[in-house]
Design a protein that fits this description.
With 217 residues, the chain is an alpha+beta fold. The chain contains 6 helices and 8 strands, in the order βααβαββαβαββαβ.
Length: 217
């Protein structure tokens, strides 16, 4: 069983986050960019980590043997004395009543296991808790896995930005999800989280506590 912890990004994790960014996006944001995000009151960054139990903390996390078995990338592992390894990252900006999701990343070795859905759930749950009314993001039309994920949460296409992605020259689809404070959205979140729980169980993942997501912020 691999234990996961979801929590806000800290300065101590910046190096690991920059390396995950490089793996997933080829270097979308620099270290100084993430530092600015940490200092911004309108930016919310969440990270997903696997951990190992220590005598000092008693925190139940994945063992060092499991790290090897799971082939975790050495370049994103933190200080081995802490036995932490970064698996996911999510960020949104709160702009008036809008949550603008800017980053959703899962380590390439751990995609399609429910971790991306867990990260998106956590971001949207946090936005709802902060009384935001709608969410938006940009995505490549060719990224069918991401589109499928966003559609599960009720996002719909609201526009297109021409040649938005410099690496491929692709347009960006602008997706939008309103009604974050409505009962219907709460039901969508509940349904999506139930799906996440089942998928994590099948993948031998376990969150540290049942309240891990609610307490992420």
């Amino acid at each position: 069983m691999t234990f996961l912890e979801l929590h806000p990004l800290t300065a101590a994790e910046l190096s690991a986050v920059v390396k995950l960014d490089e793996l997933c996006f080829g270097g979308l944001w620099t270290r100084s960019g993430y530092e600015r995000e940490l200092d911004s009151p309108s930016s919310q960054l969440l990270v997903l980590e696997a951990r190992r139990e220590t005598k000092e903390s008693g925190f139940p996390i994945v063992s060092s043997e499991s790290f090897t078995q799971n082939s975790l990338k050495a370049e994103i592992e933190a200080d081995p004395t802490s036995q932490k390894s970064l698996l996911g990252l999510g960020c949104y900006w709160s702009i008036l009543e809008e949550a603008h999701i800017t980053i959703l990343a899962v380590h390439p070795n751990y995609q399609r296991q429910g971790l991306g859905q867990l990260m998106l759930y956590a971001l949207l749950r946090d936005a709802k808790k902060r009384q935001l009314e709608w969410a938006t993001l940009e995505v490549k039309p060719s990224n069918q896995a991401a589109l499928s994920l966003y559609h599960k949460f009720g996002f719909t296409e609201a526009g297109r930005r021409r040649r938005y992605y410099k690496d491929t020259g692709e347009d960006a689809l602008i997706l939008w999800r309103g009604g974050l404070q409505a009962q219907e959205f709460e039901e969508t979140l509940t349904h999506c989280y139930q799906q996440v729980e089942r998928q994590l169980t099948l993948g031998d993942w376990q969150l540290w506590t049942d309240e891990a997501i609610e307490e992420a912020s």
